[in-house]
Amino acid sequence: MSGPVQMEVELDVYSGRPNPRWRLNSRDAGAFRALTAGLPPATTTARPAFPEPGLGYRGFTVRDGGRVLRVAAGRLTEGTASRPDPARSLERWLLSRLPPSLDDLRPLVAAALGEERGG
């Protein structure tokens, strides 16, 4: 296999069936890495603070080569290292990269991120 490793994003939203996944192009992958680098320093936690399992939006998982990053509940977590993202900028950015084929999921995730708008 040749070429750069592609970054894969998984939207953790389904229960009982596979979650949707898509790949970021190299420009978006670079932008995501830059956004993560701009977060406050990591702290070590005994257990990652993920949303409780249940129905609906639970965050994103980003696979970048051998790295697995969890973006959920205003945090970026990799293993036991966790970095705060109180504005949920990474989640909002990943939502903005949702492929058109998954547009039906956009309102669900936007509502979970507090972006509900009156209609």
Secondary structure: elements and pairs:
Elements: E1 7-12, E2 21-24, H1 26-37, E3 43-44, E4 59-64, E5 67-72, E6 75-78, E7 81-84, H2 89-96, H3 106-112
Antiparallel strand pairs: 1-2, 1-4, 3-7, 4-5, 5-6, 6-7
Any overview of this molecule?
The protein has 119 residues and is of the alpha+beta class. The chain has helices spanning 26-37, 89-96, 106-112, and strands at residues 7-12, 21-24, 43-44, 59-64, 67-72, 75-78, 81-84. A seven-stranded antiparallel sheet has the order 2-1-4-5-6-7-3. Strand 6 and strand 7 (81-84) form a beta hairpin. 19% of the residues are buried.
Quick tags:
119 residues, 7-stranded antiparallel β-sheet, alpha+beta
- Order the strands across the largest sheet as they lie in space: 2-1-4-5-6-7-3
Largest sheet: 7 strands, antiparallel
Number of domains: 1
Protein structure class: alpha+beta
Order of helices and strands: EEHEEEEEHH
Overall body shape: globular
Which radius of gyration do the C-alpha atoms yield? 14 Å
| C-alpha end-to-end distance | 48 Å
Beta-strand content: 25-35%
**Number of discrete helical segments:** 3
Number of strands: 7
**Helix content percent band:** 10-25%
Give the overall pLDDT as a whole number.
86
**Oligomerization state:** single chain
Low-confidence region ranges: none
